[in-house]
Amino acid sequence: MTEDRIPLAALEHGTPFADRHVGPMPAELARMLDVVGVGSLEELGEQAVPAGIRERDGRLDLPEPATEAESLEELTRLAERNTPHVEMIGLGYYPTVTPPVIRRNVLENPAWYTAYTPYQPEISQGRLEALLNFQTVVADLTGVPVSNASMLDESTAAAEGMTLVRRAGRSKSPRFVVDTDAFPQTLSVIETRAEPLGIEIVRADLSRGVEGLPEGEFFGALLAYPGASGAVRDHEEVIAEIHRRGGMAVVSADLLALTLLRAPGEMGADVVVGTTQRFGVPMGFGGPHAGYMAVRKGVERQLPGRLVGVSVDADGNQAYRLALQTREQHIRREKATSNICTAQVLLAVVASMYAVYHGPSGLRSIATRTHRMAAVLAEQLRRGGVEVRHDRFFDTVLTRVPGRADEIVAAARRNGVNLRRVDADHVGVSCDETTTRQRLALVWEAFGLAEGDRTPVDRLDTEVPDALPSGLLRDSEYLTHPVFHRHRSETALLRYLRRLSDSDVALDRSMIPLGSCTMKLNAAAEMEPITWPSIAELHPFAPAEDAAGLLSVMEDLRNWLSEITGYDAVSLQPNAGSQGEFAGLLAIRAYHRQRGQQQREVCLIPASAHGTNAASAVMAGLRVVVVRCDDEGNIEMDHLRELVDKHRDDLAAIMVTYPSTHGVYEDTVQEVCGLVHDAGGQVYVDGANLNALIGLARMGKFGADVSHLNLHKTFCIPHGGGGPGVGPIGVREHLAPFLPNHPLQPQAGPETGVGPISAAPWGSASILPISWAYIRMMGEDGLRRATLTAVAAANYVARRLHDYFPVLYTGKGGFVAHECILDLREVTKNAGLSVDDVAKRLADYGLHAPTMSFPVAGTLMVEPTESENLEELDRFCDAMIAIRAEIDKVAAGSWPVEDNPLVNAPHTASALAGDWEHAYGRWEAVYPMGVPESKIWPPVRRIDQARGDRNLVCSCPPLSAYEGQ
To answer: At which residues is N6-(pyridoxal phosphate)lysine found (predicted)?
Structure first.
């Protein structure tokens, strides 16, 4: 062998995945470390991370890293172990057809799935318009005027509806009535949510109408329309009686059914909730799917989650933005309307485009076909001697088969069909847009109806009337806006989607250096499996053996996450970080109660914490007490000792973020844990900043009892424009009995669990292979390298920019963790500018702004992640340095305070081409650092946020609405 020949063993597998995921090349990394002042990544870890928590001799027990091809081959073999059936179980999950133009150009398109929450609206107009379409679909079909931009799922939307009407109503009663015909998972989630808040759930048979309502007062009620049984009932009289008795009405409604049925808003509903899953979003063994909530006028400011509205930009042009942003949880904390921070934006976009593509006539046609299949199914069963329980239904037929339910369900499975076993005497069958005559025949056969004894389908179709109540047929219009009529061809929709994505800045166009958000590479090899039919077409309530391969992926993921964090058990059910916080705090509360210490209800939270912490604590029935932070941003230890001593008998927990929200490895974390444990409390470590710990320290080993882990941050599930997210929790052994469980899947959690906190047993199961693939391809060394490179990138940015914008907080040795806070307060104050001006000006440089004014007002929190190479890091740093020079010109009087590139940013192409009467030149406005390889043009100028909040417009407005404004 010649000396320069590379051994075959070194060539067999190609470039390791970690070399693709981690941005800086070795030479670039060396330059970065030189600026930081260390000789290696390991030296950086030794100096930045407190010695007391560092993992020195422990190795992570993870598989050797696989290549992208090997990982996909392994996932393919696992997916082949899944056996999707024809799913006719229903209960809010239905087979659907994702139009290929939407699947390829939204769900599989990084321009959509790598975008962040549209807090910078000027460079987020595309996804904001898509979300406004979503809100319009929901508002039009439900018949109530204000919809939010999506919820986590139908069951949590119903639970949020319950708490909304409690806040908004006048009744002092603690009772909430739930229709017994609600989906069972929804009822269970509501009960989980209600118990810590002291809400008493009253189950009522509202099929009896007004007579089914309980005696006495109640603050609200949930009605199902249609119900789990499939029955369609007119709720108008019940809603009127609820109102007469001082309560408010929440209706859970099927959006597809509402294309044919009278809208709940027309019956008087105050709140309408549900899911948009059957609008083109695959079942995916439970998610992710976009839930929805819409409310009547007068309670819109109580609406949880995000709300997209319409305003104007500096030139008076119509522009979209998030409305009422002060409701976001990091602002309102324990006074927040909800702890929700993640929505399901990517799935809401899919659902909205499904409506755009099909239009009102197409949706009505799909619903009509679905209903006709159910009507024909029911009539054949009747003619075969099977009792059908309801005469009026939309898509679900409930049969009474005394003692035969198991036999029929088993026969259907032998035919490749999953039906719903309600109990030993009842079987439910749900139809959908994919139902065919052949599938109906398989169902009839399972019920024992021989082919020769059946009426031909075409004859049945002519003989059988619709099964919809005549008094509930819809006569009101919906989806009248032109957007639902202009894009019916694939060419038109393709171009519409391209126009919208070109109006946005996502990770496919620019670094997104958002502190606390970890916007890192979402590799194509990780994303590929999510649309495989063997994963996408699984029903979450099908027998678990149908998902054997996916359950194996979940088992691997749970074991790997336990190993990485040092915890003993992991639940994958929470489908957002906020849900993980809630589940973890419920586990702590249940642990104290099981030990007879019900009085432990105080939750200590540092002043620097993310606002969802406080909101989650209140939801879990805990009382928030704030711990001060010192001038360095660390927990003020004397104040903590004082509070721990004061609350020694009623302390439930402390919630800390580590590294801190200020981007610092606090060296007191073990002492904090010890103080709380000595007082009988538990330690919750928020896992939002886990990207700074993997391979360096483990929360479960340095003193924490429970953490949520943001898979959409550290473990590469993409943010999708503001969701999906996944927030599993890891716990130590003593809390494992109190993890979430589920009434419809015993394998999903311990029998002693706190109940379900999400609609689906394993939450957003279909996107868990993304995180599985990331860990599988990175391996132990790759994960550690990613962590240290992320820390190196943050320290590099901090060192390069410190002389221009001081870094607010650092740890010992002057190091930050994975993010740094740039203090703009003094420099912008001297020039009469704001942090918003700097953020908007970055758009002219083709960059997304860092996190603004959190956790400190007037600052930018920067998190570059390990995925960005040195060229991109320098592009950001050079832009910030150039902006500092612009600020100095304003401060020196070279540019007027009221007319300079910052206060007028961002600059659009139309502004450049129009009349120019500014104190600076056109070139300075749009090419501040010379002509780049490609220019990102913001589609609108600065948006008037205050005007939009004063004048909420939350659905697609006609163009005439803005004439003369």
So the answer is: 713
Task: Tell me if residue 776 falls in helix, strand or coil.
Answer: helix
What Å distances lie between residue 904 and 316, 823, 852, 900, 935, CA to CA?
14, 22, 18, 6, 18
CB 18 within 8 A of CB 525: no
Angstrom distance (rounded) from CA 323 to CA 303: 11
DSSP letters spanning 781-817? HHHHHHHHHHHHHHHHHHHHHTTTS-B----GGG--S
Asked whether the beta carbons of 176 and 220 are under 8 A apart, the reply is yes
Q: Could you tell me where the DSSP H helices lie in 197-261?
A: 236-244
Distance CA 667, CA 364 (A): 61
Of the candidates 334, 830, 857, the one whose C-alpha atom is nearest the C-alpha of residue 602 is: 334
Hey, what CATH topology would domain 1-73+781-900+907-928 get? Answer: Aspartate Aminotransferase, domain 1 (3.90.1150)
Confidence at residue 339, expressed as pLDDT on a 0 to 100 scale: 82
| Residue type present at position 603 | C
Residue 571's DSSP bridge partners are 729
Distances (CA, A) of 537 to 274, 437, 467: 20, 20, 28
Q: Which two tokens stand for residue 158?
A: 């119903």
pLDDT at position 951 is 67
Structure tokens at 919: 């104190």
**Cα–Cα distance, 499 to 510 (Å, whole number):** 18
Hey, which residues does 67 pair with through a beta bridge?
Answer: none
Cα 549 to Cα 127, 552, 645, 773, 907: the distances in Å are: 34, 5, 50, 14, 51
Distance between CA 602 and CA 761 in Å, rounded? 30
pLDDT of res. 326: 43
- The CA distance from 270 to 139, in Å, is 12
Q: What CA–CA distance (Å, rounded) separates 252 from 235?
A: 12
Could you tell me where the DSSP H helices lie in 180-223? 184-194
Write out the two tokens for 227. 């119900």
Residue 647 pLDDT > 50: yes
| Residue range 117-344, CATH number | 3.40.640.10
The answer to whether 745 touches 551, Cβ cutoff 8 Å, is: no
Q: At what angle do helices 577-594 and 611-619 cross, to 10 degrees?
A: 40
Task: Name the burial class of residue 436, with classes exposed (0-12), middle (13-18) and buried (19+) by CB atoms within 10 angstroms of its CB.
Answer: exposed
Place of tokens 């928030």: 624
Eight-state DSSP code of residue 104: I
* Residue 232: strand pairing partners: none
Q: Is the pLDDT of residue 919 over 80?
A: yes
Topology alike, domains 1-73+781-900+907-928 and 117-344: no
> 3-class DSSP state for residue 308?
strand
* φ and ψ of 800, to 5 deg: -65, -30
Residue type, 657: T
Neighbouring-strand partners of residue 682:
653
CA angle (590 as vertex; 584, 594 as ends), nearest 5: 150
pLDDT tens readout for residues 464-521: 999 999 999 999 999 999 999 999 999 999 999 999 999 999 999 999 999 989 999 9
Domain 553-558+573-772: give its CATH code. 3.40.640.10
Where along the chain do its domains lie?
Answer: 1-73+781-900+907-928, 117-344, 553-558+573-772
Per-residue pLDDT averaged across 855-884, rounded?
A: 97
The whole-angstrom separation of Cα 449 and Cα 611 is 59
User: What would the mean pLDDT of 673-677 be, rounded to a whole number?
Assistant: 98
